[in-house]
Specification:
There is one protein chain. With 101 residues, this protein is mostly helical. The chain is built from 6 helices and no strands. It has one domain (21-100): Cytochrome c-like domain (Cytochrome Bc1 Complex, Chain D, domain 2, Orthogonal Bundle). It has helices at residues 2-17, 33-39, 46-50, 56-70, 77-90, 96-100. It starts with a helix and ends with a helix.
């Protein structure tokens, strides 16, 4: 009985925490994915984003690097905020646990 309860608890946690991923980019489907696809993955694959991770300042810096060194165009404030919010939520700073997997 205990094993069955544990199984259902683990199954519930997995379903609740499960994310859907875009089949083309491999990125998490969430608010802001369209802006990422229109502005980021036109030049590099989604995997480039996945291997990074950081807070708001990290992602702002990455955007400025892309603009200054790699030809990313100016982003309006709304688009830039959507992109940063998406990245912070779905690709935050990695922890030792994330790196060890």
């Amino acid at each position: 009985m205990k094993k069955r309860v544990l199984f259902f608890v683990l199954l519930f946690i997995t379903v609740v925490n499960a994310k859907e991923y875009d089949l083309v980019t491999g990125l998490a489907i969430d608010e802001g994915i369209d802006e990422i696809k229109e502005n980021c993955t036109v030049c590099h694959p989604g995997r480039f984003i996945v291997v990074n991770g950081g807070d708001r300042e990290f992602w702002k810096y990455k955007i400025s690097v892309m603009q200054k060194g790699f030809g990313l165009w100016d982003l309006d404030k709304k688009t830039k905020n959507k992109i940063i919010n998406y990245l912070c939520k779905n690709y935050p700073q990695k922890t030792n646990v994330d790196v060890d997997r």
